[in-house]
Amino acid sequence: MTQKELNIQKLLNEARERSLHAHTRRHFLKESAMGLGALAMGALLGSCGSRGAASPTVMFDPARPLLPKPPHFPGKAKSVIFLHMAGAPSQLELFDYKPALMKMDGQDCPQSFLEGRQFAFIRGIPKMLGPQANFAQRGQSGAWVSDRLPHFSTVADEVSFLKAMTTDQFNHAPAQLLVHTGGPRLGRPSIGSWVTYGLGTENQNLPGFVVLTSGGNNPDAGKSVWGSGFLPSVYQGVQCRSDGDPVLFIKDPDGVNRDLRKASIDAINNVNKQEFEEYQDPEILSRISQYEMAYRMQITAPDVMNINNEPEYIHEMYGTKPGKTCFANNVLLARKLVEKGVRFVQLFDWGWDSHGAGANEALNLGFINKCRSVDKAMTALLLDLKQRGLLEETLVVWAGEFGRTPMQERRDGAVNPFKGRDHHTEAFTVWLAGGGIKKGYTHGETDEIGYTTVSGKTDNHDLQATILHQLGFDHERFTYPFQGRPFRLTDVAGKVIHDIIA
Amino acid sequence: MQFLVLFDFTGRLHPAIVHLPIGILLLACLFELLTRNGKYPAVRPFIRTMVFWGALAAIAAVISGLLLQDSGEYEEEYVDPHEIVGITSAFLAIALYIFYRTNVRRVFIKTASFIVLIMIAVTGHLGGNVTRGPEFLLEPFNQSSDKIIAVKPVPDIQNAQVYNNVVQPILQEGCYNCHGPKKQKGELRLDTKDHIMKGGKEKKAVVAGKPEESEMIKRLLLPLDDEDHMPPKNKPQLSKQHIAVLQWWINTGAEFSKKVSEVKQPENIKPVLLAIETGVITPDEEITEVPEEPVNPADSAVVRRLFNNGVMVMPVARNSNYLSATFVTAANKADSLVRLLGDLKKQLVSLKLDDSNVNDSSLTTVSELTNLRRLHISNTKITDQGVAKLGKLKDLISLNLVGTQVTAKGIVALKDVKTLKYIYLYKTSITAAEREELKKNFPETILDFGNYTLPMLSGDTTEIDLNVR
Questions:
Q1: What one-character-per-residue DSSP string does B251-305 give?
Q2: Residue B403: closest C-alpha in chain A
């Protein structure tokens, strides 16, 4: 054998070995066992399906993962706009009016509220802190809303309040994960991913799950709150911007025209197709479809995602700030996206963590600025969706990740310099509107100082179950098989809150 | 005393013990019947022993069953047949064993085995009736019972007793089967004042003056598919009027001794009371988002063709043939594609044509979609002429005409569509005066003209300076 032949031999061996490396035990098992075994299983399971409706998983076509799919039953809502106030706004300054707490202002917190409880920052005996806002009953429904939200006060009759929301996480990151993924630890899919996995999306030229952030920071839990977890990665949230290019690098670079872009995407997809034929990994098909969607998005997205082509009076209504990244711009963009068939729009507005350690965290200073930055925009969103006939089928959810204590924060044993409250898990307020939710309704009640729930107690899993229900899913049957067992967004908990459903 | 407790306990073991004779005798009889013609000779020697233990277990089952019957928890009408057939089966099993011992002819043994087999099945079934009720087994076949409870008319209702003559008959027909003298599921009994006010195991069924807190009303109002809905899905349901009466009764203080005329009657309850008086309870007519009667699947070739052209057509739910369609990614071809919808006449319940190039003539096809509930044609060239055609859509619930050229005159043409709940008319040229006129034509419909504005408040554009302090 000549040296040349030897070299070729060596190369071939290496290539074969490489391919064997890629050919893992899983592929082997899949190809050998699945072939026959899966057929037999399929026949068996098929014949067992006496409850035809109970098929647990969603039909998933990896080549066209975002095509619309039907839910379990006809849903009232077709889209969701989730407004997450990251940092947890104080329910005691916005919706949960507690005159009794005012009377206790400045007194030591009774031991009964502290015994056996743990707080994120409070140490020692804190003082009670009365409401730092004035309240009034609003609209026909008489819902309590404080003067911190003068615009929102006028649409209280459009929403349902959950006043006895609870959580079991008192730190931001795990609590946010619980709100959005159903579990306090990393690794599970976010609700927007679940929804786009289950329903697909109506507009194949836009992402199905869009994320918009404001307030200067990402939420504490990071991008995992819009991650796809164990669901195929095509369902993760696509973060967009309301200023400049809506999606980074959406414009073709200088010197690349549309044809050249098409040619290069085709070339990449061809390589990917070969790769798929070899390894049969459905994620590769998802990747191909994402390239194709990105190509289509280059045409549609700049138009849909450009809030500047909205008329001036709409900008005034929302209180947008041209050229800036802010909540109002994001909210207007959210409406435009829903109008064009985007399934789930997730907004995060950072900066609601009113501890009182600095002026920006003070309930009578920074908190007021935060309220001002969202009040008009979220009110405009409800009214604008309503007048466009979109509120009937768009579910709007407004929530933080937990509540705030009726006590003034006493960080590490010293009273905080500004008026602020610590994280609180036992009671907070969330509101929902549209998408088949009752108008002007309040569900749940807290005790006379807003410390804990008295009736109508709900938690994140209940909220998630309710959101899924409005979209047409039975949250107990909406599962994805992973690591040998079916997983649910609501884990093993959650009860649909029928009281707030119209 | 201790001794009696033991009886009770043995009785309670009945549901466990019964499975022993069933299993053992079933297998023994099957073996007997299978081993004819000399097949499976290896199992033959065991059959006799099996029959012995089976018979013994059958005796145990009968004894425990008789003890359980003494507890009186079960309804006699179902227990008696089960008891008779059960005891007979036990005797037959003993007889079978004796046959084996005395070496009678195989034919007798085979016949006896066969009879025992049948008797065990019958006993088991009758036992099931005792615990689960006779409806249990066949329930899956009777799913679609959309029956409304039958309540006798109440002549001269104003002089009748609120509770005795109006409320009680509804409770009797709708609830007593499970919450009456015979059974008290969830520890709830609804046949006397005390029981009603006491409520169930966990919650108050009736909170006088507060229907929204009364568990009874809450459950009646839950969707039929909810597991907490009452009456259960397959039982006759209360009509809207029946529920309205119960709500009114609770709202007015859940009186047990007043006459109807002595209780406050808000406007909305008067027609309901009239309906109860005449006994003309109309089935709930409220239009549903998706028709209840089944429909044939749509022509898949047409659906695919629409799909390939960017029209997203999809079933409204997994097991439904009803469809919704949106032209959001086919807006510039909508005028020609709309014609294809003619093949989905019965199936389409929701159609979105917003921002598309449809025109008045496109709406001819749309007006033939007889089951259409939701129609969006905002920001299109539609005029009054097109809207007039939509008067044929008798089940339309929501119509979105935002940003079109329709006028008040055109809208009036829809006033016979009684199902309309919403018409969206934002960005149309309808004047304020015309709006008032229109509202009179549509007393039950929400006409949304939009144009909402929010005042400019000083706080909207200013921030508190955090550095001052």
A1: HTT--SS-BGGGS---GGGHHHHHHHHHT--PPP-PPPSS-SS--PPP-HHHHHH
A2: A388
